[in-house]
Design brief:
Number of helices: 8
Membrane topology: Peripheral membrane protein
CATH class of the largest domain: Alpha Beta
CATH architecture of the largest domain: 3-Layer(aba) Sandwich
Number of domains: 2
Protein name: ATP synthase gamma chain
CATH superfamily of the largest domain: ATP synthase, F1 complex, gamma subunit
GO biological process, one term: proton motive force-driven plasma membrane ATP synthesis
Strand order of the largest sheet: 3-2-1-4-5
Helix content: 55-70%
Number of strands: 5
Largest sheet: 5 strands, mixed
Strand content: 5-15%
Shape: elongated
Distance between the termini: 34 Å
Family: Belongs to the ATPase gamma chain family.
Subunit structure: F-type ATPases have 2 components, CF(1) - the catalytic core - and CF(0) - the membrane proton channel. CF(1) has five subunits: alpha(3), beta(3), gamma(1), delta(1), epsilon(1). CF(0) has three main subunits: a, b and c.
């Protein structure tokens, strides 16, 4: 059994940890509110633009001839993996890493064996996770969350678009956490390039658009913008999910610390009571020995 001093020190240590986790939960709750506001403002615009572009591209000759809608034989693949820069958020980052490995195994196993699958890590944790498992990881933009704004994301979009048009990659997919609610994050996989019409856009294909100026100018301008917005939306979704996951994880850690403190206090009181009982027995035994 641990000594009274050891148990007391453990109580103090766990109490300090509980204060830290409680503070981290409060900080994450404040950041979550701001992140949710940002993505709620962004999500309808980005989704509607992507749907409209996919519909117009499928309907018009200009869309079919655009280099970003060209479907080629897949010889090289780029996977954009969005994670966080920090841990202490449960299985948030590990789930994205596992989903990436499952995607590669399912769709690009032969390409990966030949070294033709590259991972673009947005967030340090994803790059570290996958590089340890032998993936070819580009970490040039892993610090994007330290400077998260559309200007910096646009640079990443330009790199991805140029790599696709120069045929360095034949397909580009992005994986990120989508926040269903504060406590639940769902891994979402989207194909960025080549641009394909989704089911919702196919249903809306009967919409007759009036183009001003020409179709070619509009599509050549909006398709790259839509791709960059999709990357920015994935980052904002992941940022919101990260704070929700960390708040949940710190809430559970705070509760667990409270339970541990209760158990340690119970152990401390039992040890203290046993020590007092032992001392009383020694005193009584000594007194009886003197009387004898």
């Amino acid at each position: 059994m641990a000594s009274l001093k050891e148990v007391r020190n453990r109580i103090v240590s766990v109490n300090s940890t509980q204060q830290i986790t409680k503070a981290m939960k409060m900080v994450s709750a404040a950041k979550l509110r701001r992140a949710q506001d940002a993505i709620h403002q962004m999500r309808p615009y980005a989704q509607k633009l992507a749907e409209m572009i996919a519909t117009v591209s499928a309907q018009t000759e200009a869309g079919a001839e655009n280099p970003f809608t060209e479907v080629r034989e897949i010889k090289r693949a780029l996977i954009i993996v969005v994670t966080s820069d920090r841990g202490l958020c449960g299985a948030f980052n590990a789930n994205v890493g596992k989903a990436t490995m499952a995607l590669v195994q399912e769709k690009y196993a032969d390409l990966n064996a030949a070294g033709n699958v590259e991972v673009l890590a947005l967030g340090k944790k994803g790059g570290e996770y996958l590089s340890r498992r032998g993936f070819k990881v580009n970490e040039a933009h892993a610090d994007i969350f330290t400077r998260l704004n559309f200007t910096n994301v646009r640079e990443i979009g330009e790199v991805v678009l140029n790599a696709f048009t120069e045929k360095q990659f034949d397909v580009v997919e992005v994986l990120f956490n989508y926040s269903k609610n504060v406590a639940t994050q769902i891994i979402q996989t989207e194909q960025l390039l080549p641009l394909v019409a989704s089911e919702s856009s196919e249903k809306a294909s009967s919409v007759d658009y009036i183009f001003e100026p020409s179709e070619e100018e509009i599509i050549s301008e909006l398709i790259p913008k839509s791709i960059k917005l999709s990357i920015f939306r994935a980052l904002l979704e992941s940022n919101s999910s990260e704070h929700g996951a960390r708040m949940t994880a710190m809430d559970k850690a705070t509760d667990n610390a409270g339970e541990l403190i209760k158990a340690l206090k119970l152990e401390y009181n039992r040890s203290r009571q046993a020590a007092i009982t032992k001392e009383i027995l020694e005193i009584v035994g000594g007194a009886e020995a003197l009387n004898a």
